[in-house]
Amino acid sequence: MGTPDMINKKTVLVTIIILLCLFVPLTIVSYFLKEDENPFDDNPHHDFYYQNKLWFYDENDKLVNAFPCTTDTCDYASSIINDDIYEINYYKEGNILKTSLIANDFAFIKDGALVKLFSVKEGSILQNYKVLNTYNTNISNNAYILENENNLWGVISISDSIMSILPFEYNYIALKDNAVEGTLNSDVFIVSKDDKWYLVSDDNTSLTALYNEPIVDYNNKYVITKNEERVRIYNYAGFEYLTNEDISDYVMEDSYIGIISQNVFYLYNNLDYNYLKSIPLNGEESKIELEINNRKIVIKSNGNVLDTLALTE
């Protein structure tokens, strides 16, 4: 038998070893269980893209779902704007370069060639699209313009649920430049169907006649079309104005419309009556701007004032 001192030393040594066996692993685990260094978390740093998945967390940083990517270019979808093809006067000041989570549930994800509408809460793909267009800004009524896999365009609204604004039956859909504080108005859409162009409201009601050329602009009285450098002006019923004029460009501001024909600028307030002003242009005065302020309409070219007219109405 050992002496009492030897027994006590052995007891202390065994106790120390037991305590080390208990506390060392706990210390290691507690270190790695920090929020950003958890070895048991599949995405320790909660990166959005990690290990070929997109990870979605709630406001408490709790994982809701992950989207399994099929390509390495997987991310929130961005707008594709094709309005330049038709020379539509569209909104160009948008700075929201990617979409984001919608209503804490829905996400447009660009994964390879397709844009996928993903429900984060359900963890499922709801629909596939070819093109998404938001004009890089917010659109009223939470609207999203989309082209489906059948090359047909439609518009949906997404808030707590998904609703149809325009059915997927059009060959093209666009919005004119009509934004207020960065939110683009979506009460009226420019649409193309069966080689005809017209305006529809946000309840899919036709507002105008059918036109043979792409609609590039409009106001509450007139529709502007353009094809092969020829500008035409119609009313909503399809009557064409100024048929004897070779119109190369136009400008619209409020109820005023200006045209350029044969290197002369003409300003109108009502196309049923004579023009208000004509201004011969030189070769450098081609792009005209109209500004209305202090009961005056200012006609400019390249920032230079060409003329100013007092408003009579």
What does this protein look like?
The structure is a single chain. The protein has 313 residues and is mainly β. The protein contains one helix and 27 strands. The chain is elongated, with a radius of gyration of 32 Å. About 2% of the residues have low confidence.
Summary tags:
single chain; seven-stranded antiparallel sheet; four-stranded antiparallel sheet; 1 helix; 27 strands
Q: Roughly how many Å is the radius of gyration?
A: 32 Å
> What structural class should be given to the helix and strand makeup?
mainly beta
Order of helices and strands: HEEEEEEEEEEEEEEEEEEEEEEEEEEE
Q: How does the major sheet shape up?
A: 7 strands, antiparallel
Topology:
Blueprint: H1 4-32, E1 49-50, E2 53-57, E3 63-68, E4 75-76, E5 106-111, E6 114-119, E7 124-133, E8 138-139, E9 143-148, E10 153-158, E11 162-170, E12 172-174, E13 179-180, E14 183-184, E15 188-193, E16 196-201, E17 215-218, E18 222-227, E19 230-235, E20 240-241, E21 247-253, E22 256-261, E23 264-268, E24 277-280, E25 288-293, E26 296-301, E27 304-310
Parallel strand pairs: 8-14
Antiparallel strand pairs: 1-2, 2-3, 4-5, 5-6, 6-7, 7-9, 9-10, 10-11, 12-15, 13-14, 15-16, 17-18, 18-19, 19-20, 21-22, 22-23, 23-24, 25-26, 26-27
